[in-house]
Amino acid sequence: MNLKKPEHYEAIISEKNQLMSTIYHVRFSLPSSKELLFTPGQYATVMIDSKTRRQYSFCSDPHHTKECEMVIDVAPMGPGSKFFLEKRVGDRVVFLAPLGTFRLADTPMKKVLIATGTGIAPFRSMLLNEVLRSSFLVPSKGYDELSFTTKELTKNKELTTRNFSLYWGLRHEEDMYWDKEFQDLVGQLVGFQYFMSLSKPSEKWTGLVGHVTDHVLKQEHNWEMTEFYLCGNRSMIDEMMQKLSAHNVKKEQIKTDLFY
Hints:
Blueprint: E1 7-18, E2 23-29, E3 43-47, E4 53-57, E5 67-73, H1 79-86, E6 92-99, E7 110-116, H2 121-133, E8 138-139, E9 164-170, H3 179-188, E10 189-190, E11 192-198, E12 208-209, H4 212-219, E13 226-232, H5 234-246, E14 254-258
């Protein structure tokens, strides 16, 4: 796949929603003369000031070329955090995009996505795109019942089922967002699995507990026919790389995107 050459965009914040205490979902509208063509998994470099730049992955459907979305974690309270905390709907933001080569390979192998924290952002974009393409996922209900897709699915008459799993690791229940979106996909699409694991849950939590990497090893067994996509903190990526290496997973079957 040929990647588009990056350009500078001057976008306007059209929506800014606080998902969790330190997580914001920001939507940008592009000027009428511009279209943003990116591949799910790519990111933008936001111009914070004349000397400061910060990178944020797109979390939106790439088919919507007149707008884009990013998820911002302001917990670090660095220049990027303060920049987006101060921004309001209607404010201007300049960024360079699209950038990066983290994207799904066009192969018949199972796709396993593993995220921690806001490392979920590029995977949301990938899932939105794959639902529309229908190359990896097949609807198990009527098209009109799908809340996560459109009738564009009906254009592809030869759909094939391929397995596709998402693992997301967070610390607490209050850190969870987009959980319902991914849960909805499980019941709507054949071949899709979703696992949420919390490392420090409350006593009321009845879901998976511990490092998300441990649950990948429990669920996945066909190492030779699986591709692994890792996005999040360095400790998760290093740990997962070591465990995959111990199972003789080839390097070309592992793609990484370090978030922090």
